[in-house]
Amino acid sequence: MLRVNNIRVPLDFDFSGLESFCIKKFRISLDNLISTKLSKKSVDARKKSDVHFIISIDIELKNENSVKIKNAVKVEKYVYKVDKVSGDFRRPVIVGFGSAGMFSALVLAMAGTRPIVLERGSDVDTRCEDVEKFSSVGILNPECNIQFGEGGAGTFSDGKLTTGIKDKRIEWILRKFVEFGAPEEILYLAKAHIGTDRLVNIVKNLREQVIQYGGEVIFNARFCDFRTDGNNISKVTYTDGKNFHKIKTDNLILATGHSARDVFELLYSKNISLSQKNFSVGVRIEHKRQDIDKAMYGDFAGHKALKSADYKLAVHLPNGRTLYTFCMCPGGEVVPASSEEKRLAVNGMSYFARNAENSNSALLVGVSPDDYKSPHVLAGMYFQRELEEKAFIAGGGDYSAPVTLVGDFMDGKISEKFGTVKPSYRPSVKFARPESYLPDFVCETLRLGIKEMGRKIKGFDSPEAVLTGIESRSSSPVRVNRNESLQSVTIQGLFPCGEGAGYAGGIMSASVDGMKCAEAVIKRLKGE
Q1: Model's pTM, two decimal places?
Q2: Residue 343's pLDDT is what?
Q3: How far apart are CA 104 and CA 107, in angstroms?
């Protein structure tokens, strides 16, 4: 099959006529053509007067040597094969059913290992009820929220499928998402997303396939302890809130996510090798969606072929710091992401349509051990907690989020009223200065960086844009150290996995890491 890259087409291009387009443009005879398929589609908006698409097309021919096409390369469809496991063995256990846990469970189930998944939160339908209760009336369930529950944190963060890693498994993961109910466009869009509203059913369908292959998913099951035999995992303990249950196993995949702080403390108490890890903190910035669309697309804003505009920015500043945007949610909302009582955290989320009034993004500043000045391996986690406690107090102590207008923040004063941009965070907000919950170096970097970003995107530094705090859960502050076999350097049979262990950063990279850990468990079960 040939893949033709870097094809420029107008916004009103008829994608239903792809076959006719290829025949004419590349002078292919109809008898030679087997199929055509769109393999990539991105928006080129570098010139606001000339916004268009850049696409790639896969062309299958009977005789590839009969044509010469510029920018064409030969490609083969990736086929993922799962080795079957037979014989007597203890069922592997997976802790966490987020992106990493789901795909490690799927691969292990396909291998015939009948994995057992322990998820501290509820099934996704019940989880949606708990999330809505928190958003509407401020009642937090510490065991089931935007961080914990079926689907993991990714379910309530727009379902972005972009990643910086290069791995063949990504193609298989995307095809699986489509099989479970995602739109086919995720197979070719350069910045694909699924949307929280669609992810709800997708994660349920994935769970059902795990069960069909012989796996088991236990909800409301909080992992709380493990035992070893010599230097090998031998037993896992979990609680359903009333009783404790034990499972004998030789292989434990720990895919708990970046917010399972009790797990970090458990590992520390067990002398499992951990290390400090850089992370970031900051706020969410909200603009009117139509203003961002206009800034990014110019006169093409509102074109029926264009989705809500996104952006990605990073500015290096005179104070030696960098401010960057993260998890940008076009046409989305800022949501309560707390998982611990009397601690406040926010995140961003979009539905598939991305048609809400505002667009938002995290504005983050990097944090390193030099900033919290402690050699304790969990110091970064304690630093996060301290900031979240301050944000909780700044918001009034009822999970209201502290907010300010950009203009007032720049002037160093507390806001008194909103302008054109109304905050989307629920259950409520309270005006407060970011200095009341963020370190001085973060506030200084925000002031410098927002001004610079305004030079890159017109209106980004609008005085009426809203800042909502605190964004503190962008990544794990701890790494659970593992070796080349993906096992803990301390204990055999323990596989630290995904974002929580410090080896991923988003749905796709976490899913890939989950597959890798599952493959490592399969090798171990087969004695390889």
Answers
A1: 0.96
A2: 98
A3: 5
